[in-house]
Design brief:
Chain lengths: 73, 140
């Protein structure tokens, strides 16, 4: 799933480790989400939403991801 | 500007701090297992004592398994998924291995003195790590 995690993290000058610590997950998980190889669970997505003080749909964009997949077809 | 750091090194649950804490228990099991092997091979003892020595590693492996499961429960969601995928690969591979050996045994293509349970179980153990490598690559 497309997401803005890397951008949001950079805006706050956080490293992957910083973000991982704030969310209570491993840096590997942050890396996998940023590289769009793993979609977080709903509870983790809500944690991110709370941390960045924005709705989940402002962080994740499933429609764009679905469109890209269908374009690759 | 974004602070930089070394690229994330994808690590599996086997080398996370949580599961690394279980290593002493695995080592303890290993020491008792090797001790039991040595004793059964070289120390003369009555039959009942042999059975007791042969079963001695079992509770220690049980302890290790208990600690490992506790550690897995403390992993984050992606690490747990990787562990599940690793086991999902290792388990069918273990079935395939044992089934194939059984069939080869039927046709006499395997020497019983070469393929024994003592030599087979470490191989099954390593299948987990094959699964772990495969699962980790997926999320790298």
């Amino acid at each position: 799933m497309k997401n803005r995690l890397r951008v949001l993290r950079a805006e706050r000058d956080w490293t992957q480790s910083d973000l991982a610590e704030r969310l209570g997950v491993s840096r590997q998980t942050i890396h996998a989400i940023e590289s769009e190889k793993y979609d977080p669970s709903l509870p983790l997505a809500f944690k991110m939403s709370k941390l960045f003080e924005m709705p989940i749909e402002a962080i994740f964009n499933p429609e764009e991801s679905a469109r890209l997949k269908s374009d690759r077809g | 500007m974004e602070r930089t750091e070394a690229p994330a090194i994808p690590h599996g649950p086997d080398c996370s701090p949580e599961t690394a804490r279980t290593t002493p228990y695995l080592m303890l099991f290993g020491v008792v297992y090797v001790g039991a092997l040595f004793a059964l091979r070289f120390v003369p003892m009555p039959r009942a004592a042999q059975v007791a020595v042969a079963l001695a590693p079992v509770p220690l492996f049980g302890l290790y398994l208990h600690r490992w499961l506790q550690a897995v429960r403390r992993l984050d969601e992606l690490q747990r998924l990787i562990t599940l995928e690793a086991l999902g690969i290792a388990y069918p591979l273990a079935i395939l291995l044992i089934m194939t050996i059984g069939l080869l045994e039927m046709v006499g293509a395997i020497r019983h003195d070469l393929v024994t349970y003592l030599r087979l179980w470490p191989l099954v153990f390593w299948l987990y790590f094959i699964g772990l490598i495969a699962a980790r690559r997926r999320y790298r």
